[in-house]
Write a structure and sequence with these properties.
about 0% strand; Glycerol uptake facilitator protein; globular
Length: about 260
């Protein structure tokens, strides 16, 4: 967005897909590649992960997200400043969502032309008409539900249709790409509370203030980018384990198939 390197939504989505794949391959053998608190909480909820480890994992996820935001800011701060000059907005003032969106997510997506003007004019009525909070909440629940459903399915040893040859990360990454293409025009496609809150907190401290961390005011982030992904992930895991997994062949049937 800032340097014009990724000019289309699909290009952005593929970059995210590869990033997720690489992250899983690099640290999956060490930690299980928990890069999303919503997935961690869903795994713990459905007894696929121990609750005692959840706090440490979530803190690590948030710390990693904040560190990534610092690196992004260090590398691209001149581009951020130039973007603000071009859009005639001051950092931390209405309209600077156009650069704060590099850190935390917003709904509607500030990159959409009509939304950018509405943010600048603080036209809450127009913003709500473009993407009501209920729609944004539902989109994030649905997106994270699908993501969790895929994670649970492709990592299930009982699932004979799961990808072999350690290719599960590829399909998880491609799922992220597809979800971004569909949902990002509405909410920027978060699905990950750490991905949102860590960079958002950094941006708040780096000059964006209340623009980055709006709290509980209208169009706030808490329900859409924190609560919705967690609920969606829990629902997705429950859907797989409670409904779909019941249709898988049992151990006896597996032996017959493989014999």
């Amino acid at each position: 967005m800032l340097a014009g390197a990724q000019s289309g939504l699909w290009q952005v989505a593929i970059v995210w897909a590869v990033a997720v794949m690489v992250a899983v391959y690099v640290v999956g053998g060490i930690s299980g590649a928990h890069i999303n608190p919503a997935i961690t909480i869903a795994l713990a909820t459905w007894r696929r992960f121990r609750w005692v480890h959840v706090p440490a994992y979530v803190i690590s996820q948030l710390a990693g997200a904040m560190l990534a935001a610092l690196v992004l800011f260090t590398l691209y701060e001149p581009f951020l400043t130039e973007k603000e000059k071009k859009e005639d907005v001051g950092r931390g003032r209405p309209g600077s969502e156009i650069t704060a969106m590099c850190y935390g997510e917003f709904y509607p997506n500030p990159g959409v032309a009509d939304a950018a003007a509405a943010y600048k004019n603080e036209d809450r009525e127009r913003l709500s008409a473009l993407v009501p909070e209920a729609v944004a909440f539902s989109a994030e629940v649905l997106g994270t539900l699908v993501l969790a459903l895929v994670v649970f399915a492709v990592t299930d040893e009982r699932n004979l249709a799961a990808p072999t040859g350690r290719l599960a990360p590829v399909f998880i990454g491609l799922t992220v790409a597809v979800l971004i293409v569909v949902i990002a025009p509405l909410t920027q496609a978060c699905f990950n509370p750490a991905r949102d809150f860590g960079p958002r907190l950094f941006a708040c401290l780096a000059g964006w203030g209340r623009i980055a961390l709006p709290g509980l005011r209208p169009a706030g982030f808490l329900t859409v980018y924190i609560v919705a992904p967690v609920l969606g992930a829990i629902a997705g895991g429950g859907l797989y384990l409670g409904v779909l997994r019941r249709g898988l062949p049992g151990p006896e049937a597996e032996r017959i198939i493989h014999s």
